[in-house]
Amino acid sequence: MAQLQSYDIRSIDEAEVLRYMGYSGQKYSPELEGRIRQTMQECLDVSQPRGLVQVFEVAGRGTSADGRPEVRLEGTALTLVGDSMREHMDGAVAVGVLAVTLGMANERMLKRLSLTDHIRQVIFDAASTTLVERAADAAEASIVRQAADRGLFTNFRFSPGYGDMPMQTQPVLLQTLDAQRRLGITLTPTLLMTPTKSVTAVVGMFHERQPSTHGSCKGCPCFDFCTIRPTGRTCRG
Q: Which residue in 39, 42, 57, 74 has its CB near the most CB atoms, within 10 A?
């Protein structure tokens, strides 16, 4: 069964929030700066970052009925289809699957602000995107730890909709993790997730170090959530 995790994230990177807002170096008033920081804190206060993580062995590789390459995962109906997955999972012996969300309180705030305060809505949306990506970093750190415990290396997370990984992966991935019942994540008819501030992804595990493996802990997105460094080891072996 997938591990249910809650993430204690107490700060948001203001530079990332500004980037998601489309900031490109222009000046803005102290009043707006105050609103940005206040709204970032509101995002932290209202959100409940949680996630599910589970690792599956690679059962085999082949070609789907429509001729696309696929990677099959043991004990699940989840199949990773497309040239992107063939390349991303080349040599993988196992795959970590994750889903994270900020919860429905965050979703309700986004909808309320869209009707009442457009400026705060833009800021809150950017802060929420930054926060859910940090939650995904935390979930990925859990997968990296599980890989390291097995003497394996990981690559970076890859989400449905990237490259040619089809959005049709989404319902099977969520069902595999039981994410609707355990996290409250549902799908619209167009396969978009609700709450909208949710992320799903897969991470490969390999016997060999990958080109995407960080050369040092500095700058690693999983740094703040790493449970390997306190043991005196690193994920690089």
A: 39
| Residue 169: exposure state from Cβ atoms within 10 A (0-12, 13-18, ≥19) | buried
Comparing CA positions, the residue from 158, 101, 130, 138 lying closest to residue 222 is 138
Among the listed residues 227, 234, 214, the one whose alpha carbon sits nearest the alpha carbon of residue 3:
227
Q: pLDDT for 108-158, tens place per residue?
A: 999 999 999 999 999 999 999 999 999 999 999 999 999 999 999 999 999
Exposure string over 90-116, b if 16+ CB within 10 A, otherwise e:
eebebbbbbbbbbbeebbebbeebeee
C-alpha 134/C-alpha 150 separation (Å) is: 25
Q: How far is CA 124 from CA 32, 38, 130, 200, in A?
A: 13, 10, 10, 21
- Model pTM? 0.93
d(CA 194, CA 198): 7
Contact present, 81 and 67 (Cβ < 8 Å): no
